[in-house]
Amino acid sequence: MNIEQYVKDLNAVHELYPEIYSYAMEHHVPIIDGDALSVLKHLIKMSGARKYLEIGTAIGYSGLHLLSVFDDSHLITIEKQSEMFDIARQNFEKYKVEDRVEAYLDDAKTLDLSIDEQSLDLLFIDASKGNNQHFFDKYSPYVKENGLIIVDNILLRGLIADDNIENRNKRKMKEKVASFNQNMSNSSYATSFLPIGDGLLVISKS
């Protein structure tokens, strides 16, 4: 057993939504890795965050987990793929949290949210990776002072450190994600780049 698997086993917890997890595995729906999810929920618990904006709903797996930390939390979530969006809505209804969810079937790059600036406790970016910078610039003003911004998949399953990518689209995506990562590293924000799951970037807005 290697160190990575050892830690993964220690972090393993009871899956709250096994049917959704199994569906994601069977249909190759990208969802947050278990290690990264554990850290995300731990950060929410420690910070007391109650109001979340999620960029990239997919089938509602991570959104349900966000809502599971506190019973009085509220989720705003955006998904542009209608098939995913419909499944997510069904999952929110199945687990009876639909009254705590404000879901948008729209493109997060162009959607104009009617919420106040600095009204969110947490921004979770988990959509098209090449748009991380755009999503950060567009939605970070909605996060209150001392709030959290979390970005998933900053390692691109190892592509971020691969200098020999032949596929042009993958190479362009790697360049965009690498640029965003470096921009955040050089910024005035407090940042932590964590080699957990597929890479988790934790940003404190202060």
Automatic annotation (TrEMBL):
<dbReference type="Pfam" id="PF01596">
    <property type="entry name" value="Methyltransf_3"/>
</dbReference>
<keyword id="KW-0808">Transferase</keyword>
<dbReference type="GO" id="GO:0008171">
    <property type="term" value="F:O-methyltransferase activity"/>
</dbReference>
<dbReference type="GO" id="GO:0008757">
    <property type="term" value="F:S-adenosylmethionine-dependent methyltransferase activity"/>
</dbReference>
<dbReference type="InterPro" id="IPR029063">
    <property type="entry name" value="SAM-dependent_MTases_sf"/>
</dbReference>
<dbReference type="GO" id="GO:0032259">
    <property type="term" value="P:methylation"/>
</dbReference>
<dbReference type="InterPro" id="IPR050362">
    <property type="entry name" value="Cation-dep_OMT"/>
</dbReference>
<dbReference type="InterPro" id="IPR002935">
    <property type="entry name" value="SAM_O-MeTrfase"/>
</dbReference>
<keyword id="KW-0949">S-adenosyl-L-methionine</keyword>
<keyword id="KW-0489">Methyltransferase</keyword>
<protein>
    <submittedName>
        <fullName>Predicted O-methyltransferase YrrM</fullName>
    </submittedName>
</protein>
